[in-house]
Amino acid sequence: MNAAEKAMPEVSFKTSRFGDISVAEDRIINFVQGVPGFERLRRFILIDHDTDGVFRWLQAVDDPAVAFLLTDPNQFKPGYVVPLRKADADGLGVTDPQSLITLVMVCVSQETKELSLNLKGPVVFNADNMKAIQCVLDREDCPSHFSIKM
């Protein structure tokens, strides 16, 4: 049996926003500690929101109603970096820092429809092993509501 015949097992699940989804098991992102407030949820996938790739949905595999809108913070705040603690880097199994991808959650105001980024709680992904963590930064230059214009 060659590599092409060994298909990666797929995981199928329902979502409230995107309907039925099937994804290869190796595309599932595993959160090391769970997302704060949603600690019981550990498995997620990323879904492109638009063809430009500016926004992505972080969809929970085990809860059809849970999805977070994410974006690359550097598109709106150039130079944004996450000072990853050693314990977090170890939890992510970082062997190559170049494999880390940082995204932040996008908040939409119900009243004004304005967009803001949560720079205080970035999500860091290790593309090499599909592990992730949401960090909590206690820095003045990382507000939880960083307004952006579209």
Task: Give the key terms.
two-stranded antiparallel sheet; 150 residues; 7-stranded mixed barrel; 10 strands
Task: Give an account of the 3D structure.
The chain is mainly beta and 150 residues long. It is built from one helix and ten strands, in the order ββββββαββββ. It has one domain: BH3618-like, CATH 2.30.290. A seven-stranded mixed barrel has the order 3-4-5-6-7-8-9. A two-stranded antiparallel ribbon has the order 1-2. A hairpin with a 6-residue loop joins strand 4 and strand 5.
Task: Offer a concise description of the structure.
The chain is mainly β and 150 residues long. The protein has 1 helix and 10 strands; from the N terminus they run E-E-E-E-E-E-H-E-E-E-E. The longest helix has 7 residues, at 86-92.
| Termini separation | 50 Å
Overall CATH class: Mainly Beta
Strand order of the largest sheet: 3-4-5-6-7-8-9
* CATH fold-level topology: BH3618-like
Considering DSSP H and I runs of 4 or more, what fraction of the residues is helical? under 10%
Radius of gyration from CA coordinates:
16 Å
How many strand units? 10
Question: Main β-sheet, in a few words?
Answer: 7 strands, mixed, barrel
What is the CATH homology-level superfamily?
BH3618-like
CATH architecture heading: Roll
How would you spell out the order of helices and strands? EEEEEEHEEEE
Shape: globular
Mean pLDDT metric: 91
Strand content: 35-45%
What number of domains?
Answer: 1
Number of helices: 1
